[in-house]
Amino acid sequence: MAFPQLVQTLPLVLILLAVPAPAAADFNISNLSGVLSTALTESLLIALPPCHLTGGNATLMVRRANDSKVVKSNFVVPPCRGRRELVSVVDSGAGFTVTRLSVYQVTNLVPGTKYYISYLVKKGTSTESSKEIPMSTLPRKKMESIGLGMARTGGMVVITVLLSVAMFILVVGFIIALALGAPK
Fold it and tell me: Mind telling me which residue stretches traverse the membrane in this protein (predicted)?
């Protein structure tokens, strides 16, 4: 007896589930952990909103941890070329790879500080927002603590001296060749 009622109400339930709710939808944004250095000293790199929001008016909201002040930045969501990846390979050849970074860079931040980032995107009559994600900038390092990876080695000095001597001999030989080969 309950089975016929279930068969009658099932299409109505499926239709109600398929209709999207009029409230704002949420989407996830991601940081670049494991792909690039997510944090710089005074800026952060944030993934752009999803492709279905292309052409929408995006507002990026940046809030400092333990602070109620929100800094907003507005832009139009750029078009996608295929599936939007954070880092996509544009061209790859023998010995080189050209990549494109599809991110938004937030600048003028305080070094060594935690921030909460979120998007609000309006496209037509719909509005979608992202979940708030925490990100941090790196603290500044003292110049003395930064190791020099390109310090001069003995080999570099020897090569420089040999090239300098060879250039001197080449210039002297060129001058002598000009002097001996000049018509009298």
Answer: 155-180
- Count the residues in the chain: 184
What tens digit of pLDDT does each residue of 28-68 get? Answer: 665 444 333 455 678 887 888 888 888 999 999 999 988 88
Say how many CA atoms lie within 13 Å of 180 toward its Cβ. Answer: 6
Strand intervals (E) in 22-155: 25-27, 44-47, 57-64, 70-76, 87-93, 96-101, 103-106, 114-123, 126-130, 133-136
Mean pLDDT of 90-118: 78
**pTM confidence score:** 0.55
Residues 6+ apart with CB under 8 A from 41: 111, 137, 138, 139, 140
Alpha-carbon separation of residue 98 from 38, 89, 93, 134, 168 (angstroms): 20, 6, 9, 30, 40
Question: Nearest Cα to 117, choosing from 21, 37, 41, 39?
Answer: 39
**Token pair recorded at residue 10:** 């099932």
Cα distances (Å, whole numbers) of residue 177 to 108, 123, 165: 61, 75, 18
Q: Which two tokens stand for residue 164?
A: 């300098």
